């Protein structure tokens, strides 16, 4: 993210008006272990550094390492929770939040993190995730059943229109819950959730997709037969990449694909134990154990419609 000179100056002012040099260094070391202020300033350890100069150097350094937003998140956490066991208010930290909002970021209070404002843009990494860094993510795999049969039995124009409808249906359910579509192959794809209660949001997205699919089949679908879909949800730590080939190397990615392709019946949502243990009791009660020997501890849900 580009940080303007005025934004950097305001950030430095927030630092030197609210904390000592020792505290500044302690804070920046949460992001930059071993940070050496004297080395960064190019002076010997015995030479004192004025407080304002120290603050400006720290801000320059965090900007150069693309750590500015992370740094503001730490300042907000200190303002809310304190540091070193004591209350530590930072009076002007709200100015930094306002400046980031003007840059297109909103604050997620569940995870105490900034993410891109979805009203302005939606990118694969929420504007924050860095390639090569591990994150705890929930992945939702969506796949239409018997895709080749659908293509053979129907006119191409109707098939393309239907697949586009399904893609929009999935996208709407995912993106309104802070998720992102990571890949789409015409008849299915992969969505990811990072912000908020990611496992819960992934489940609600999948439940909505199943409900919308039933309505689509009943009222709208122009094809000769109703569509069927398999959905699988799994979560865990994985290394983020903008390249799908790299994402495919992660256990989380491989597991969610395996759950969907090998263990998910048509028109069902199957979740792993990593998802189920994150749900509250009423939501978890919708799922029933799936009779497999898979180590992922799978549970399943199917939409039941009364006649």
Features:
single chain; 307 residues; alpha+beta; Alpha-Beta Plaits; 7-stranded mixed beta sheet; two-stranded antiparallel sheet; 13 helices; 9 strands; 46% helix; elongated
Describe it for me?
The chain contains 13 helices and nine strands. The chain has helices at residues 5-18, 21-28, 37-41, 51-64, 68-81, 93-102, 147-153, 156-175, 198-220, 244-247, 251-263, 273-276, 281-284, and strands spanning 105-108, 113-116, 134-144, 180-184, 188-193, 229-239, 268-271, 288-289, 299-302. With 307 residues, it is an alpha+beta fold. Helix 2 packs parallel to helix 4 and helix 5 packs antiparallel against helix 6 (93-102). A seven-stranded mixed β-sheet has the order 4-5-3-6-7-9-8, sandwiched between helices. A two-stranded antiparallel ribbon has the order 1-2. Strand 1 and strand 2 form a beta hairpin. The longest helix is centred in the C-terminal third of the chain and has 23 residues, at 198-220. It is elongated. It has two domains: 5-103; 134-302, Nucleotide cyclase, GGDEF domain (Alpha-Beta Plaits, 2-Layer Sandwich).
